[in-house]
Amino acid sequence: MQESLPNPSVDITRLRVGSQTYHCLYPGATFTGSQTCGRNSYSVTVTIVDVDLSSSFLCGYLCICGVTEDWPELTTYFDGEIMGNRHGFLTQKWEASEQVDMSHWQQFPAFHYVRNKLKRPRLTMPDRHRDTIFMRWKERFLIPDHKAVSGLSFEGFCYVCMEFNLWSPASTALSVVSEGSETSTSTLLTPGRCHRDLSVQRAGDGSPIGPRCPAPAATISGFYYHPKSEPYQQLSLTHVAQTFSSTFEFR
Q1: Could you report the per-residue pLDDT of 45-81, keeping only the tens digit for each?
Q2: Of 5, 14, 115, 241, which residue is 20 to 30 A from 218 by alpha carbon distance?
């Protein structure tokens, strides 16, 4: 007799929602660096919470220090779209025109290698393994509570580019694995008109064991956009190497 499928409304213990990884992009991955707004620079830490390559999605927490005097440290939740077949380089929302999109994507040197390969109408590209991933990060709310903070806005978003150093010993030694398989901002917080911004690129189908990936195995750069904020606020982050393995699972 064939076993019936579990009912997700009742039997959650038999259902596992496994996160996926791609090189240094994995649940628990940490990136540290800075966010610049004019002459000001703020310390930033990004922690990846979940990665779903099949849905071209990821989410995480962004912690920024020194934005306001009343709040020396602020943490927001953000989610991201990974560029590929599902999400194109044309944003088509958040007050971003095609001209705005292109002016920001062109800030990343890696974009010039893929620009002529993008397909209309949304400027998509095939999902495959590559050494660069482009993303859009959108901050949603403050954690642990959602109360408003003066000088903080969530109206904008960030164009993001993540680059992997695939030739580093740590990267080339990684295996591609996924949960359940065999081994093998953005609301930029800133005083006045400044905001925080983040962005990322599209990952492929694979997922290497990330926690053993040492810095500088991956770097993140991003540019925040909102029509009423200072242009080209830049985010610069570097992956923090971990010497232990960790696993996250949503139930």
Answers
A1: 999 999 998 899 999 999 999 887 777 899 999 999 9
A2: 115
